[in-house]
Structure formats: structure tokens, C-alpha cells
UniProtKB/TrEMBL annotation, chain A:
Family assignment from sequence similarity: Belongs to the bacterial solute-binding protein 1 family.
Keywords: Periplasm, Signal, Sugar transport, Transport
Annotated source species: Hoeflea poritis
Compartment(s) of residence: Periplasm
Protein name, entry field: Probable sugar-binding periplasmic protein
Coiled-coil stretches: none
Signal peptide coordinates: 1-24
Domain of life, source organism: Bacteria
Signal keyword on record: yes
Function: Part of a binding-protein-dependent transport system for a sugar.
Keyword Signal annotated: yes
Automatic annotation (TrEMBL), chain B:
Protein name, per record: Sugar ABC transporter permease
InterPro entries: ABC_transporter_permease, MetI-like, MetI-like_sf
The entry's keywords: Cell membrane, Membrane, Transmembrane, Transmembrane helix, Transport
Keyword Transferase assigned: no
Transmembrane segments: 12-35, 80-100, 109-130, 163-188, 217-237, 280-299
Superkingdom assignment: Bacteria
Record organism: Hoeflea poritis
Gene3D superfamilies in alphabetical order: MetI-like
Residue ranges annotated for the ABC transmembrane type-1 domain, each copy included: 75-298
Membrane topology: Multi-pass membrane protein
Similarity comment text for this entry: Belongs to the binding-protein-dependent transport system permease family.
Length: 419, 309
């Protein structure tokens, strides 16, 4: 009697379980990302658009803080608790994940047909045969300026470096605005919005970047040192106490209208549009001499791949195919002006500032950040050292030549082509 | 109890039973991971498999000029961090405790609470609040100095290589001064009134009473505080990480062993984490702390004189 009732109970519970299971047959996908700023856009625009087309798939966007993303993601992957879809950093960070079996190959996906080889370069194996992430967007570097301040002071948009410094001098003389909003506290702005922003004009974009990878150029060559010499001159145009000024400080300083020029990445556009109540314009990094070819950093920044251990591979593939579609490209580029689609679709954008940034693709030569491909594979890590060196040079605590020599020695200590 | 009274001692199971939860939990979450870390430091990843390399990771840490430069920089900074705590936090803590225990002091409960409150705040709050206070753009520090005409003394302290570490140490002192204060305060209160009355009969009052009677009696507490400070400082990480980030800027001036370990173990930005070298640093930190604690336990604590009342 007792045992039959127990059996009955067990049977009932298994039935209940299986009913519960049957009801939960919706495939659920979790996305790992560092773009916590975009949480709202994913939840209100991108995910509903996808779910409307794919009934039966539920998507959750679970971002972590940008600075911790790589560490958090690696730990989650090791522990087997990472999400089904993984937002990919470009180049080595993701390549290492692929090699460790934490990212699945996506080469044969239908959606991948819509991307050029350059777009795919950030997420391909060194020989280019396998892709492991579907490209989402690139970001373009340049300078955003306060148009009202420029009009007030009668300044025109600088085309050459000399004109930029002349404009900065004039703003400083006037005294109403801090000429340039940047701090060295967080270090990465100095490297990303400083060195990698103005640098391509010196090392001629891809030409110099590839020569550095091959070992034909060294970081101590003039074209790699001179950007540091220019950066060192920025010091006089930054705000008081810029040494302790953080990245959010700089953003606030500019959007509150206290500063005239902001060395920027296009990802700032949507945030700045919401905050600034003055007119903004943008100009590409000024060339060194009038008439020079211009080069911009159009950095393949963000992509999305699939965790091979996902429980719902078909659903994940459906999502990745959708990322390659025109619908996604248009939605993404317009919800997040400043993140430019890498696909071959002709994407219409409404935002004026974003249009200005993307128009440089037509007149300048595009390149990507010099330290990202291959060169940051070893220890010391060239990208992180570049942050440190750029911040030191702007603070004036290290001479440009010394910084360059330190970086070159570090690179030569592990990289075959430079030994 | 004499041996003749009880021939057969019953097995005292309750001791084992009562100890078991603590022993099991402590073993699972402290001792096993500790040995796991020590083990990990003897391996290296080659072609995606762990290979035993003996003490080679330690040789790299101390022998390779880049690794050793970072390590010694972190150790030196950490030592300075500790020195500031010992020179500022603990003497001030003793001073506050002495003042608080004075029966003439009014509002002592308020002071005691106010000084202790920062201790229970999260590092993130403390770091963020101080970063704002000291911010050259929006902080109140420049304005306050301006109000007394000392604006020229202001500097972006957290951004200067020469001041950043000392500034952070003082922030940490501000946060944790409540701990030594409370411990010493408790020790001072436990001194029996008879001893103090006897001292007064002998004409020892005021300052000399503090130096000659009270201070020797609270010396064991000061020893405990010193060792707590030592362990806490050499394990510190949170405050530096929340204010200066994992790169411990400016120019690694605030890099201490904890941030160095974090950067190495988990990686940072494009740098991919290296759990083996990270564990090597963690093992060295463990040895440093072990050495410090042993030195105290065997060298100092055994020589401290204790008084029983």
C-alpha cells in the first residue's frame, strides 16, 4: 500500500515534469555582450523584430561591463555557463576563443554571403579560410566639435594639422571653452582616440599597418613615433587636471558645452545626440599637409558568434543568419548611429552626424587599429602597452622616442618578424 | 579530575561533530583552492594542455626583466601602501580610541559611529565618492581649497604618478580607521578601574598614565591590528581596481600585487588571461603573507607581555 502510493507519487511527479518540459519547448537564446549601453535598444527594437519573425525562439540580452567582458566571458566559457550567442571582440581575443573550441565556425551560414572579405577579416583564421563570427558593425575615429562654439569664435573646420592647432590656440586664447576634452586617467582614450585616431595619416593606413606586421617597419620608425610627438602637443589644450579626468568626465565636459573639440569614436554619436543641446559637427583626423591623402580608422569592432555548446544550435543559427540580413543592418545602424554596418546592403541612415562620419569612407582610405591584428598576441601586450605609452606621452612623463623604443623592445621580445 | 577516578575515557564525539561543519566548509572553500592555486603555478599551457614545468614560472616571474620589473614595482607599491597604513591608520586609531575612552568627552557615541561608518561601506562607493570629491572638474576639493585661498595646493592627485598611490592609501585609511579604533577602544575599556586608581594614587595621571599604564596594556591588541593590516594590505585589490582600473594607472604607479595578479590571471582588454602565471603571482603573495604572519606569531607575539587581572 505504502509503496504503491509512493510509486504513484513518483509517477505523477515525472508526468508533471514532462508536462512542464513540453510547455517550455520555446528555444531560449542568451546573448553575451559588453555593450551594456545598448541594453534598451536590444530589448525594445532588435529582439522584438527577430522574435516577430521567428516564433518559438526567445532571446535574452545579458551584457557585462566593457572592461570586464573578456575576463568574465572567458571564465564563463571555461565553466560552461556562457550564453548561446557570444558577442565577439575583433581579432585575437575571438580567434583564441575559436581555437579553444569556444566559438563555432560560421563560414557556411547563409547570412555570411552578405559580407566582404575586409569585413570578415576581424573574425577569420589567419589564412582566411574559416570565419567564426558574423560581423555586426565598425566604428570610425575622428573629431566631434561644438558647432556653436566654432561659429561663435569664427573658426572653420580644420583640414590640416596646422589648422587644427591654430584653431586650438584660438579657442584657448578666447578662454570660454576648454579646447579639447580628453583625460588620461583611464588611459585607453589616449591610445584609441589619440594615437589610433591621428596615426593612420602618418603610417598611411593599411600600408604601414601591414608593414609593421611583416616586420618591414618598426615602431621606432618616424611614421610611428611622430603621432606621439603630435600627441605630446595636445597636453597644453586639455582641461585643468586632465591627468585625473576620466572617460565619462570627458564625455560630460563636451556634452555640457564646456569643451570645443572632442577626439571621438563614432560610437559616441547616439549618446551625444541625447545629451548635447548644441549643434555638433565632425571632421576626420586632419592631414599633415594640404592635399595629402587622408586615412581613417574604420575599425571592425563588433560581431557575434555561436557557442558550440549551445542547447539550441538551430535557433542560434537562425539568429546569426538574421544578423546578416538587410533588416538587421538597417535596424542596427539606425538604432545605434555611429555603429556602421559592415554588410554589403545599402543601408540608409537618418542621423546627420553618422552620415558625416560614414561619408569619409568615400574620400579617405580606411584602415583598422594597428595593434589589433596579430601584434597583441604576446606578453607584453602591445595594445595595453600602447594605452600606457600614449597616456604617458600626453602627460609628458615619457618622451615620444622613449615610449616608442619601449614598445618596440616589448614587441621584439616575442614577435618573430621583429626579432 | 584525577586519572584514578576515571579509568575509561568516553570518546568525545561531540567535539568532532561540532568542529565538522567549520572544518568541512573551510577545507572546501579555502584550503582546497589554495592548494589548487599552488598546483596551477607549477604547470604551463602548451598546445592546449597543461604541462608540468616545476618552478619555471617562478623563474620567469623573477628572472625575466619585464615580469620581474612589474612584480617588484607591485611589491614596492604594496609595501608603501602598508607603510602608510601603519604610520597613519594605526596611530590615529589609537589616538581616537584614547580620546573616545575619556569620560569627559561629550558626543562620544556620535564620533564613534561617524568614524566607524565608512568601514561598512562598499569599496565601490568609497572609491567612487572619493574620485568625485577629488575630481578636478566637478570635485569639491578644489572649491574648498579655493575658499581658503589655497587653490594652488590642489593637484589632480589621482592622475599624478607621484601622488596617486599615497592618495589611495589615505582613502583606504579613511575607510578602515574604524577597525583599529574599535579594537583599541574595547581593549582600553577592559582595563580595570582599580589599576587606574592605583596609578592615580601613585601620582600618575593624564598623559603619563596613557603612556605608562594604558599603552602597555593594549600592546597585544596593537599587535593583532598590525597583523590584520598587513594581511589586508597585501591582499588589497578592490579600491585600486574601482578607482584606477585594472591597468592601475597612471603608468602603473598604483599597481599592487592584487591588481597585478588580476591583470595576469584574468587578462585585460586584448591581453588574454594566463592562469598559470597568475597562480604563480598568487602563490608568491601567499608566501609573503605567510612569512609576515609567521614572523609576527613566532617573533613578536610570543615576546609580548600579558597582564592578567
Amino acid at each position: 500500500m505504502k509503496s504503491t502510493s509512493l510509486k504513484g507519487l513518483l509517477l505523477a511527479s515525472t508526468l508533471l515534469c514532462s508536462i512542464g518540459y513540453a510547455q517550455a519547448q520555446d528555444a531560449e537564446l542568451t546573448i553575451e555582450s559588453w555593450r551594456n549601453d545598448d541594453l534598451e535598444i536590444w530589448q525594445s527594437k532588435l529582439i522584438p523584430a527577430f522574435e516577430a519573425k521567428h516564433p518559438g525562439i526567445k532571446v535574452k540580452f545579458t551584457p557585462s561591463a566593457p572592461a570586464e567582458y573578456n575576463a568574465v566571458l572567458n571564465s564563463k566559457l571555461e565553466a560552461g555557463s556562457a550564453g548561446d550567442l557570444i558577442t565577439c571582440r575583433p581579432f585575437d581575443a575571438s580567434l583564441a576563443l575559436y581555437e579553444d573550441g569556444h566559438l563555432a565556425a560560421v563560414t557556411d551560414l547563409e547570412g555570411m554571403k552578405n559580407f566582404s572579405d575586409v569585413a570578415k577579416s576581424g573574425w577569420s583564421t589567419d589564412d582566411g579560410s574559416v570565419q567564426f563570427c558574423v560581423p555586426m558593425a565598425s566604428v570610425i575615429h575622428g573629431f566631434i566639435y561644438n558647432k556653436d562654439a566654432f561659429d561663435e569664435l569664427g573658426l572653420s573646420v580644420p583640414q590640416t594639422e596646422a589648422e587644427l592647432f591654430a584653431a586650438l590656440d584660438k579657442i584657448k586664447e578666447d578662454g570660454n571653452y576648454v579646447p579639447m576634452a580628453m583625460g588620461t586617467n583611464d588611459q585607453w582614450e589616449a591610445a584609441t582616440m589619440g594615437y589610433q585616431n591621428i596615426g593612420p595619416n602618418y603610417w598611411k593606413g593599411e600600408e604601414g599597418r601591414l608593414a609593421l606586421i611583416k616586420g618591414d617597419q618598426k615602431l621606432t620608425d618616424d611614421v610611428w613615433v611622430q603621432p606621439y610627438e603630435t600627441l605630446a602637443k595636445w597636453k597644453d589644450y586639455l582641461g585643468d587636471g586632465f591627468e585625473a579626468q576620466t572617460y565619462p568626465d570627458s564625455q560630460n565636459m563636451f556634452t555640457l558645452g564646456r569643451a570645443a573639440i572632442y577626439p571621438a569614436g563614432s560610437w559616441e554619436i547616439s549618446g551625444f545626440n541625447n545629451l548635447a543641446d548644441f549643434k555638433m559637427g565632425a571632421f576626420p583626423p586632419p592631414v599633415r599637409n594640404a592635399g595629402d591623402d587622408c586615412y581613417i580608422s574604420d575599425h571592425t569592432d563588433i560581431a557575434i558568434g555561436m557557442n558550440p555548446k549551445t542547447a539550441n544550435p538551430e535557433a542560434a543559427k537562425a539568429f546569426l543568419n538574421w544578423v546578416g540580413s538587410e533588416e538587421f543592418a538597417t535596424l542596427y545602424a539606425n538604432s545605434l548611429p555611429g555603429f556602421f554596418s559592415l554588410s554589403n546592403h545599402d543601408v540608409k541612415m537618418d542621423d546627420a552626424l553618422a552620415q558625416e562620419f560614414v561619408s569619409w569612407r568615400g574620400k579617405c582610405n580606411s584602415t583598422i587599429r594597428s595593434t589589433y591584428q596579430i601584434l597583441s598576441r604576446g606578453t607584453p601586450n602591445l595594445e595595453n602597452e600602447t594605452w600606457n605609452a600614449s597616456a604617458n606621452v600626453i602627460r609628458g612623463t615619457e618622451a615620444p622616442q622613449d615610449a616608442a623604443k619601449r614598445l618596440q623592445d616589448g614587441l621584439a621580445s616575442w614577435y618573430e618578424n621583429h626579432k | 579530575m584525577s586519572a584514578s577516578e576515571q579509568k575509561k575515557k568516553p570518546v568525545r564525539w561531540h567535539i568532532a561533530v561540532f568542529l565538522a561543519p567549520a572544518v568541512l566548509i573551510y577545507t572546501a572553500i579555502m584550503i582546497l583552492p589554495l592548494f589548487g592555486t599552488l598546483q596551477l603555478s607549477l604547470f604551463r599551457e602548451v598546445d592546449q594542455s597543461q604541462v608540468f614545468v616545476g618552478f619555471d614560472n617562478f623563474r620567469i616571474l623573477f628572472g625575466d626583466p619585464r615580469w620581474s620589473e612589474s612584480f617588484w614595482n607591485a611589491l614596492f607599491n604594496n609595501t608603501w601602501f602598508f607603510i602608510i597604513h601603519m604610520l597613519v591608520q594605526n596611530p590615529l586609531g589609537i589616538l581616537f580610541a584614547a580620546l573616545l575612552s575619556s569620560p569627559k568627552l561629550r558626543f562620544s557615541v556620535f564620533y564613534r559611529t561617524a568614524i566607524f561608518v565608512p568601514t561598512i561601506l562598499s569599496f565601490v562607493i568609497v572609491g567612487f565618492a572619493w574620485k568625485l570629491i577629488l575630481s578636478p572638474l566637478w570635485g569639491i576639493a578644489p572649491d574648498m581649497l579655493d575658499a581658503v585661498g589655497l587653490k594652488s595646493l590642489f593637484a589632480p592627485w589621482l592622475g599624478k604618478t607621484e601622488y596617486a598611490l599615497t592618495t589611495l592609501s589615505l582613502i583606504s585609511v579613511w575607510q578602515f580607521i574604524g577597525i583599529p579604533m574599535m579594537l583599541i577602544y574595547a581593549a582600553l575599556l577592559s582595563i580595570p578601574d582599580e589599576v587606574l586608581e592605583a596609578a592615580e594614587c601613585d601620582g600618575i595621571t593624564g598623559m603619563s598614565q596613557f603612556w605608562k599604564i594604558k599603552l602597555p596594556l593594549v600592546l597585544p591588541s596593537i599587535g593583532i591590528i598590525s597583523i590584520l593590516t598587513f594581511v589586508g594590505n597585501f591582499n588589497a585589490f578592490d579600491l585600486i581596481y574601482t578607482t584606477q582600473g585594472a591597468l592601475a594607472g597612471p603608468d602603473y604607479a598604483t599597481d599592487i600585487l592584487g591588481t597585478f595578479l588580476y591583470r595576469t590571471f584574468f587578462g585585460f582588454q586584448l591581453q588574454i588571461g594566463d592562469p598559470n602565471m597568475g597562480s604563480t603571482i598568487a602563490s608568491v603573495m601567499f608566501l609573503i603573507i605567510l612569512a609576515g604572519v609567521s614572523l609576527y606569531l613566532f617573533g613578536i607575539q610570543t615576546r609580548l607581555r600579558r597582564y592578567q587581572f
